[in-house]
Amino acid sequence: MPHAAIRLDTLGEGSTNADVISVPEACRLLRVHRNTLYRLIRDESLPAFKMTRGGRWRFRKSDLRDWLEDKQAARRP
Question: Does residue 60 surpass a pLDDT of 70?
């Protein structure tokens, strides 16, 4: 698996539990289907992590917003 599991205390400065969201929340934020989200994770296009070995995927809202802004900026001529 390309993404390493991390602990909550290693989220970085400025990150809080409220900033960490689940797959359904990430789907709503990005307005994509769950399968699309998992494909982006698999392709290592989307910043994601697991908090424990074998755990569920998690995302930082700030990372997803930055990722989305980068994608939108790349589309602009």
Answer: yes
